[in-house]
Structures are given as C-alpha cells and as structure tokens.
C-alpha cells in the first residue's frame, strides 16, 4: 500500500484513498486515509471526506496509484 491507492475495508463496501503510510522497519503498520463516497444508493454524507487511520491489515487495495 502506498499514498494515493484506492482501498476498501475488508468485508465492506467502504472506499478510501490513502493519504499517508507509516512504517516500522520497512513494513507498514498504520495508514491515514480519507473515506470517499460510493455511488447511490450507498452514498453516506456523514462518512464522505472523513479523515481516519487504521491498520493496513484491515484494508484491501482496489486500485493502485
């Protein structure tokens, strides 16, 4: 995973763009991201644009930058 990748939360339809990757000993241990909306009917204005961080193990890459 790298900055700019489009990712999805494993087991969900939530999409996000990675804004920063933090590594320890060359291995990613935390990513910062911005949640992006999905096309209707799943669009949720309460989630769109929210900055967040999580473990990369919770995400899967949909499209590489």
Q: How does this model look, in words?
A:
- This protein has strands at 6-9, 15-24, 27-36, 51-54, 59-63.
- It is an all-beta fold and 65 residues long.
- It has one domain (6-58).
- Strands 4-3-2-1-5 form a five-stranded antiparallel β-sheet, with no helix packed on it.
- The radius of gyration is 12 Å and the shape is elongated.
- The model has no long low-confidence stretch (mean pLDDT 87).
Please state the average pLDDT score.
87
Q: Please give the radius of gyration in angstroms.
A: 12 Å
What's the story with the biggest beta sheet?
Answer: 5 strands, antiparallel
Beta-strand segment tally: 5
Element-by-element helix/strand order:
EEEEE
Give the N-terminus to C-terminus distance in angstroms: 9 Å
Low-confidence residue ranges: none
Strand content: over 45%
SS content category: mainly beta
Q: What tags apply to this protein structure?
A:
5 strands; elongated; 65 residues; 51% strand; mainly beta; 5-stranded antiparallel β-sheet
List the helices and strands and how they pair.
Layout: E1 6-9, E2 15-24, E3 27-36, E4 51-54, E5 59-63
Antiparallel strand pairs: 1-2, 1-5, 2-3, 3-4
Please give a quick description of this structure.
This protein is 0% helix and 51% strand. With 65 residues, it is an all-beta fold.
């Amino acid at each position: 995973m790298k900055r700019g990748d489009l990712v999805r939360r494993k087991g969900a339809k939530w999409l996000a763009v990675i804004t920063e990757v933090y590594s320890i000993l060359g291995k990613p241990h935390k990513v910062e991201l911005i949640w992006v909306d999905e096309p209707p009917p799943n669009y949720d204005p309460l989630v769109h644009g929210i900055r967040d961080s999580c473990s990369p193990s919770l995400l899967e890459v949909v499209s590489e930058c």
